[in-house]
Design a protein that fits this description.
The protein has about 230 residues and is an alpha/beta fold. It has 2 domains: about 40 residues; about 160 residues, Rossmann fold. About 40% of the residues lie in helices and about 20% in strands. The protein contains 8 helices and 7 strands; from the N terminus they run H-H-H-H-E-H-E-H-E-E-H-E-H-E-E. The chain has a 7-stranded mixed sheet. The longest helix is centred in the first third of the chain and has 21 residues. It is globular. The chain starts with a helix and ends with a strand. The structure holds S-adenosylmethionine.
Length: about 230
Amino acid sequence: MATLRELNILFERVRREGAGKALRLTSGHVGSLARSLIEDIRRGVSTTREVRDEELGFRDRQNHAYVATDYEIFRKAIRSIDIRAGEDVFVDFGSGKGRPVLLAAEYPFRRVIGVEYSKQLHDAACQNLRLSKRLVCQDVELVHADAGEWAIPPDATVLFFFNPFEGQVLAKVCDNIRASIAAAPRRITIIYVRADKFFEREIDWAEWLVKAHDFPCSDGLVAIYHNRPLA
Ligand SMILES: C[S@@+](CC[C@H](N)C(=O)[O-])C[C@H]1O[C@@H](n2cnc3c(N)ncnc32)[C@H](O)[C@@H]1O
């Protein structure tokens, strides 16, 4: 339950960040927006406001704009995988203002990394990291880079995506993951929020991944995959 103080802050934030949007949304989305704002307030961070591509200066529509993963969806997904405490390394490709990075750091990952293309969002994530109150994992790195050009660390094992890009960028990142596994064989888990949108349509994922399970989210599918052993 939210406290009176949290509710006051919530109303102020809805007024500032989301009132116009809330009026246009269905009750399910309003619930998600309210939950997001309350969870942000509890952590002392600000990850909720969406940022459109014009505001980010994105001209290439392959790179998608900023919308944060719903807190509940993230929790449901992360609880559905086995985390090897002190071993697994989490990476969010297109980490935005840092919500999944900060949430992952509440679990016993050895390391947590976020890679973000927009300097504006990267700076917001760095600020959120400084403010965040709940981290269990203290080794958190935020990288300002194009995910397609970023060298995947050989110990990265839990790879998170919330529909960050499509087309050549997505293909390049998938090639990089396959090359990384070939160079440093290991078991990886991919958590993909909105896998139905581009990933499952554009990538021959079944050649190298096995779907462990999936579940519906508000406007699509969350899917969890593991890599097939290399031949
Ligand atoms: C749908 S948002 C997801 C944000 C965050 N992962 C979350 O779940 O809260 C997609 C993010 O991917 C970022 N992005 C788009 N293209 C990118 C690229 N080529 N490299 C890195 N980040 C990118 C966007 O700036 C945006 O922050």
